[in-house]
């Protein structure tokens, strides 16, 4: 079995565990998960940005086009209030964005003009709000040792590679936390307005309820 096949299997297994948890505990998060992205949508992003999505990222989008509906990642115009988002269900309040948003954030990712490699392809993937100024990227740089790794970025700061070896590894960590693995950094999973929300149990937001963590399936 190839490395790509292993990553795909790990991604699908981890997301299956996450989705089962959402179905049982976070009905609004589960109900608002988007439909899969079409192959034409995936190829359009790859052609537009001149990159190839890692196999595990592609596999996730073939299950859901993001962790919430597109409206969760839209800016409010002030004319009509947007519904409370459900898509930011990952630790640190991050969400995986629909494919159609990736190009805008890709163009705004800070670069170091002196040292930047013109072949570098850091694709913003997970964001904490619609502006996309803070979040995580996947390395899509062709033939690089870091291809497929997850790194972090922030406004006015250069991207930092190497946070997780792959999206598959990241989602596996998230699934493990939902099913009881302790963590002092990402907080504790709970429910807020029917959605998965990670919080410090010692200082949770109003209305947040912890979920008793089940045994790992």
From TrEMBL:
Pfam families: SMI1_KNR4. Coiled coil: none annotated. It comes from the Bacteria. Residues 36-173 form the Knr4/Smi1-like domain. This is SMI1/KNR4 family protein. It comes from Streptomyces noboritoensis. The lineage of its organism: Bacteria, Bacillati, Actinomycetota, Actinomycetes, Kitasatosporales.
């Amino acid at each position: 079995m190839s490395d790509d096949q292993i990553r795909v299997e790990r991604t699908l297994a981890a997301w299956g565990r996450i989705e089962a948890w959402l179905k049982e505990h976070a009905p609004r998060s589960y109900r608002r998960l988007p439909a899969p992205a079409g192959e034409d949508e995936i190829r359009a992003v790859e052609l537009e940005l001149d990159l190839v999505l890692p196999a595990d990222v592609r596999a996730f989008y073939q299950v859901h086009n993001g962790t919430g509906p597109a409206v969760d990642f839209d800016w409010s115009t002030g004319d009509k209030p947007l519904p409370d988002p459900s898509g930011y269900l990952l630790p640190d309040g991050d969400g995986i964005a629909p494919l159609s948003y990736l190009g805008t954030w890709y163009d705004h990712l800070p670069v170091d003009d002196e040292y930047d490699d013109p072949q570098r392809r850091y694709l913003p993937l997970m964001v904490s709000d619609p502006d996309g100024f803070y979040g995580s990227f996947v390395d899509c740089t062709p033939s690089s040792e870091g291809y497929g790794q997850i790194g972090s970025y922030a406004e006015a700061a250069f991207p930092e590679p190497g946070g997780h070896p792959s999206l598959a590894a990241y989602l596996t960590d998230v699934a493990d936390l939902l099913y009881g693995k302790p963590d002092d950094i990402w907080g504790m999973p709970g429910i807020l307005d029917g959605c998965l929300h990670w919080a410090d149990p010692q200082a949770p937001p109003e209305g947040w309820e912890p979920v008793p963590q089940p045994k790992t399936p």
